[in-house]
Amino acid sequence: MAAGVYNQAIGAFQSHSLVNNFNHQQKFNNIGRLVVTKDFISSNCLSRKNFSVIQCIASQTSEVDTASSSSRSKTSARDTHTKSNEAALILVRHGESLWNEKNLFTGCVDVPLSKKGIDEAIEAGKRISSIPVDLIFTSALIRAQMTAMLAMTQHRRRKVPIIVHNESEQAREWSQIFGEDTRKHSIPVITAWQLNERMYGGLQGLNKLQTAERYGKEKVHEWRRSYSIPPPNGESLEMCAERAVAYFRDQIEPQLLSGKNIMISAHGNSLRSIIMYLDKLTSQEVISLELSTGIPMLYIFKEGRFIRRGSPIGPTEAGVYAYTRRLALYRQRLDDVLQ
Ligand SMILES: O=C(O)[C@@H](CO)OP(=O)(O)O
């Protein structure tokens, strides 16, 4: 059965032009390359031995999710090997916020989603509902957290996303989960200020149109989209990247390397800085990179490389499952159990 889904997916993929969510002109290098070099492993205190231990754990955990006990024995060594060195990475900018709705600069002001943003988050969840998610990262801001939680209400695996509280020893202790089965059916959600939207300084709360009328369209576009020019008393994209990309490399990449499927729910600019890193965009190219609210983007992390696959259109889009055998197996498993 799984082979059927996989072959069907390969066929669809070959005749399927993937819809990219990036609404800008330049041609993207379709294969973002992250070469996992010896120093990457050592700099992440992953000795070769630890690295292989993590790989081994990952292949076992991923097996739990993509094969029933009966088919587990049929999982070939190749599949197990394939599973251990590939993972899905979903990036999603939060749904429309109440200040997006009013066209106000938001930055690090902690505003919630609008009604439209809630609908966008649910729609995003439908699009990724057959893609595995083992771990979720969000910013510390409610609009990103709402988006992640609402999206996961649509996931076919029905695991419960649970925000991890480790801001103090007591928080850790009081939020413990007991019961192996309960733990297995939950997804840790890690909130990180490093993934927050860029801090927009003196523009936060100002209307974008009025600001452009006051300072000039070019100047405001430069503040909003250039790489190194910050808004007044705010962060440039470069400064935002210094925290967001550093966090991605230090905290998220090791999880991908261990075979964990990750979703990141964050913001227009913190995600632009991460995509700039994943797709090796220049500071010129990133100027035209715009992200729509609530549109998930799928990357496949395989053999140390990030391969961008555009935005899944729907939960059964065959093309999405052509990328790796693991995604096809996972979706087939869901189909088998949920039929
Ligand atoms: O105001 C903001 O925080 C950001 C994202 O909404 O705006 P812009 O897209 O202009 O960077």
TrEMBL record:
Annotated GO biological process: glycolytic process
Family annotation (Pfam families): His_Phos_1 (PF00300)
Domain of life: Eukaryota
Enzyme Commission code: 5.4.2.11
Key words of the record: Glycolysis, Isomerase
GO molecular function: phosphoglycerate mutase activity
Active site, per annotation: H94 (tele-phosphohistidine intermediate), E197 (proton donor/acceptor)
SMART domains per record: PGAM
UniProt key word Isomerase: yes
Binding site for substrate: 93-100, 106-107, 143, 197-200, 208, 224-225, 268-269
Annotated site location: Transition state stabilizer: H267
Xref: NCBIfam families: PRK01112.1
Assigned protein family: Belongs to the phosphoglycerate mutase family. BPG-dependent PGAM subfamily.
Name of the protein this chain belongs to: phosphoglycerate mutase (2,3-diphosphoglycerate-dependent)
